[in-house]
Design goal:
Helix content is 81%, strand content 0%. It is mainly α.
């Protein structure tokens, strides 16, 4: 991935010679992240297709990843640790979503607990990209809570077989907020 990102970055740099060294490094890092995420998702799609739970994975990914983009969460230190941690998270979400039919009141409690976790812990800084602006931090907190509310409401519109998966995906993403804050504190200590 690093080699591919470097080749693409070098091609971009040849076409735009006015880029600063910082801009070139930023482009390369962004490409590494993008290529890594695309690779992971393609592998997950393949794996969950083999086990005939692709539909559950897609529901889990939409709900989990949408909130993750806004609120942040726990980040692993290496690509492979991230890969396997994320695979474990999606597997847990799918197993719980497939295995349990949650009554409406339980879903509401899970969503409320997720909102509380977001109020307390969101947003979580990425180790390589801390949120410096307090106003941006506050906006992300509000967006995180609003996103959980909207996604939580949307989960009730899904058929029952997928609704539980969506609610669990929301809750587990909210749990990663706590884990992310904890990991960031350890990194800073």
């Amino acid at each position: 991935m690093e080699k591919l990102a470097r080749k693409i970055t070098n091609a971009i740099q040849r076409e735009n010679t006015e880029l600063t060294d910082l801009q070139v490094r930023t482009i390369k890092y962004g490409l590494e992240c993008l290529i890594g995420e695309i690779t992971k998702m393609l592998i997950y799609v393949f794996l969950f297709s083999v086990f005939k739970v692709l539909d559950y994975f897609l529901v889990a990914a939409i709900f989990f990843c949408t909130l993750r983009i806004i609120a942040g969460g726990y980040h692993s230190k290496t690509y492979w640790r991230c890969f396997f941690t994320t695979l474990l998270i999606f597997t847990i979400i799918i197993i719980m979503g497939k295995s349990y039919t949650f009554p409406v009141n339980v879903k509401v409690y899970i969503i409320l607990l997720s909102i509380i976790l977001a109020v307390v812990f969101a947003p979580v800084d990425h180790p390589n990209k801390p949120i410096i602006s307090q106003s941006r931090r506050l906006r992300l907190k509000y967006f995180s809570v609003a996103a959980i509310c909207v996604m939580g409401a949307m989960s009730f519109l899904l058929p029952d077989i997928y609704s539980g998966t969506a609610v669990i995906a929301i809750f587990i993403e909210a749990l990663t907020l706590f884990l992310g804050k904890l990991a960031n504190r350890r990194r800073c200590a």
